[in-house]
Amino acid sequence: xxxxxxxxxxxxxxxxxxxxxxxxxxxxxxxxxxxxxxxxxxxxxxxxxxxxxxxxxxxxxxxxxxxxxxxxxxxxxxxxxxxxxxxxxxxxxxxxxxxxxxxxxxxxxxxxxxxxxxxxxxxxxxxxxxxxxxxxxxxxxxxxxxxxxxxxxxxxxxxxxxxxxxxxxxxxxxxxxxxxxxxxxxxxxxxxxxxxxxxxxxxxxxxxxxxxxxxxxxxxxxxxxxxxxxxxxxxxxxxxxxxxxxxxxxxxxxxxxxxxxxxxxxxxxxxxxxxxxxxxxxxxxxxxxxxxxxxxxxxxxxxxxxxxxxxxxxxxxxxxxxxxxxxxxxxxxxxxxxxxxxxxxxxxxxxxxxxxxxxxxxxxxxxxxxxxxxxxxxxxxxxxxxxxxxxxxxxxxxxxxxxxxxxxxxxxxxxxxxxxxxxxxxxxxxxxxxxx
Length: 436
Known about the structure:
Blueprint: E1 4-6, H1 18-28, H2 33-46, E2 50-52, E3 57-59, E4 67-69, H3 71-96, H4 105-109, E5 131-139, E6 142-149, H5 156-170, H6 183-193, E7 202-205, H7 214-224, E8 227-229, E9 234-237, E10 240-245, E11 248-252, E12 254-257, H8 262-265, H9 269-274, E13 279-281, H10 292-296, H11 298-305, E14 316-318, H12 327-330, E15 334-337, E16 346-348, H13 354-366, E17 371-374, E18 381-386, E19 389-402, E20 405-406, E21 411-414, E22 429-431, E23 433-435
Parallel strand pairs: 1-19, 4-23, 7-8, 7-12, 12-13
Antiparallel strand pairs: 2-3, 5-6, 5-19, 9-10, 10-11, 14-17, 15-16, 15-17, 18-19, 19-20, 19-21, 21-22
């Protein structure tokens, strides 16, 4: 009998499903299960399955107990997210073309991701965001979206690798089987569609091995036969962009950027993009839709555009726009810095010590316009193999949407025991996910 260490009172609804009962029965029949867990993680580390924290390469741990989504659930969520993706691209087009939008103009212009050069510019095919990373959780089985990641969404390679290694080591021991995911195929198709050239040359722009997601950059380069280039490799010629390779300079049609600071690292690339010499995926300036302040307005944005909100989001509001004394109001909420990402700038006040809370609230008092507050959801947990025990742990889902298509390669991240924060930088694990 599997003994699960419970750390909270959260819903465990998924495990009442028949597929999970079969899966747990399979686990009980595997002798020395945690030796397999250790083997999977040793293989992952040897293959460079790591996350750079700023000081060292931390291995990304794999929790090999699959999470399962039913096909009908996947399609329902996917349709909702495709509608949201459409709304985000339309919002960006409207704002950068001077049309009125529901987000106050001063909030957009103070966003660290606002690019005034994009005003009036027509991006190729009128698409700003080709690749979306949408973070969801389930509350009693109902999905809620927590964040839109539209600048440099990452993590699909981790989902693919977690599935691959779990299948390699434990695949013959599970009665239920999940699909391997179509993420690589759809990523290549999407990047190719970003150019009108029949067989475009595509480069992944990385800032090198110290990027936290460098594993992913290299993974895509190897799997999809894309050029992996650093800023020093890029050359701006009159009318074109080239990159230096061992075989010489090569013309590039599409740059899949995985860096933020184009102006500092790649001077001239922004101008080349604006002149139509190269396409950049995702486009510069998309971050105004990635800003946590904009997230608060997404239901109104979708309503204004006449697009149905297919996946609901928790109550959220920009703290700087509230005149009342809000400290009592936000004491049990999640506080997010507007430009935060990867778990940085996210504070679950409910789970913090009094001293930590005071520090965060002092920051909010000093710069309320830099923060938003979000309803704290007691979201569903999963059974996870962590260390040498089974735990009930919080987990989220990151869906990857490609313009008007959704991938079956879905990242499920598991929070460390006792935490609700699932990000890799916060010590989160990665689960394989099956759609059955």
